[in-house]
């Protein structure tokens, strides 16, 4: 269950696409997701209209918000393909992280709406009609959302997009809460009408749980947080290079769904400029091979006595 809600991978042999290809894959993913979730939500909305189920209404609201999150992600992936400029020297990859903030906001908004409607129906119960159709709608919601969740999460992990993974988690939570609608329909059919708003509250709690996970991942990206295992892999790769006496520091940051690294190395004091250049080039190549989704690296080489012992060589 933990893996289902918070998928995790550090496979060093994961596919590494070019920045443009990764963005194209992301755009295709959000387009398909938008169509699938839009159709799912419309089907559920029709059944909400005839049944009056608040559990189904909460789930439908969440599905609509989930479908709409594809729009800012689409825009972000398009912006991310633009070349760097004199003002935006690192490019426009950060647009993807800003879109992640919108995803988090939509998850929070759907939790507020679903919770409000559930409490309102607890205070003022409303009879539910067509219980069988409500159950069918819950099943349709689960199938549609789980298909989109698998697609988004796998693609997000492949291209390194925290925003797309967060959106996949959003869809996955929708899928499980859609199953809760089945429990609501069963409770109503068994003569317990309050089961409907009670399940609506359960759905709200589930939305809040995924909100926490999604917000954590998106804000870590905005604060230049990276998994320590990536830093460990980079340090090990650099330290293994012949001629490197020590790794002073490694700093890494995400720019959209691509990684950038800065590293400082201690080398032999007598190393010539040509040798230092070759060493930095080899170290960069090793780093790009060992660290998934690393698109650029800046290597600083210093004589082992310290920074004051001579000029450094930088290789990007």
Description:
The protein has 316 residues and is α+β, with helices and mostly antiparallel strands. The protein is 66% helix and 11% strand. The chain has helices at 2-5, 19-51, 54-68, 70-80, 94-123, 131-159, 162-189, 195-222, 228-239, 273-290; strands at residues 244-255, 258-267, 294-303, 313-315. α10 links the parallel β2 and β3 (294-303). Mean pLDDT is 76; it is low at 1-17 and 306-311.
Task: Offer a few descriptive terms.
about 10% strand; about 325 residues; about 65% helix; four-stranded mixed β-sheet; elongated; alpha+beta; disordered N terminus
Describe how the helices and strands are arranged:
Blueprint: H1 2-5, H2 19-51, H3 54-68, H4 70-80, H5 94-123, H6 131-159, H7 162-189, H8 195-222, H9 228-239, E1 244-255, E2 258-267, H10 273-290, E3 294-303, E4 313-315
Parallel strand pairs: 2-3
Antiparallel strand pairs: 1-2, 3-4
Helix pairs in contact: 2-3, 2-4, 2-6, 3-5, 3-6, 3-7, 3-8, 4-5, 5-7, 5-8, 6-7, 7-8, 9-10
């Amino acid at each position: 269950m933990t893996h289902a809600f918070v998928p995790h991978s550090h496979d060093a042999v994961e596919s590494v696409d070019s920045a443009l290809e990764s963005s194209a894959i992301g755009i295709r993913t959000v387009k398909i997701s938008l169509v699938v979730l839009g159709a799912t939500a419309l089907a559920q909305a029709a059944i909400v209209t005839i049944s009056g189920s608040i559990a189904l209404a909460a789930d439908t609201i969440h599905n609509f918000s989930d479908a709409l999150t594809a729009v800012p992600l689409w825009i972000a992936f398009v912006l991310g393909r633009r070349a760097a400029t004199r003002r935006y020297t690192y490019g426009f990859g950060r647009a993807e992280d800003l879109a992640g903030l919108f995803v988090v906001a939509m998850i929070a908004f759907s939790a507020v709406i679903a919770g409000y409607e559930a409490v309102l129906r607890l205070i003022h119960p409303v009879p539910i009609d067509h219980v069988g159709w409500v159950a069918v709608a819950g099943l349709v919601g689960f199938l549609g959302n789980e298909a989109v969740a698998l697609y988004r999460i796998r693609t997000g992990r492949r291209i390194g997009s925290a925003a797309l993974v967060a959106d996949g988690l959003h869809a996955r939570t929708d899928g499980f809460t859609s199953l809760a609608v089945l429990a609501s329909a069963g409770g109503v059919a068994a003569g317990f009408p309050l089961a409907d708003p009670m399940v609506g509250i359960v759905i709200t709690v589930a939305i809040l749980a995924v909100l926490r996970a999604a917000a954590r991942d998106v804000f870590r990206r905005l604060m230049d947080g990276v998994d320590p295992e990536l830093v460990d892999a980079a340090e090990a790769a650099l330290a293994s290079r012949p001629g490197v006496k020590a790794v002073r520091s490694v700093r890494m940051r995400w720019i959209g769904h691509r990684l950038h690294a800065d590293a400082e190395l201690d080398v032999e004091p007598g190393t010539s400029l040509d040798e230092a250049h070759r060493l930095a080039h080899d170290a960069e190549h090793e780093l790009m091979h060992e660290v998934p989704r690393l698109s650029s690296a800046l290597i600083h080489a210093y004589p082992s006595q310290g920074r004051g012992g001579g000029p450094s060589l930088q290789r990007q």
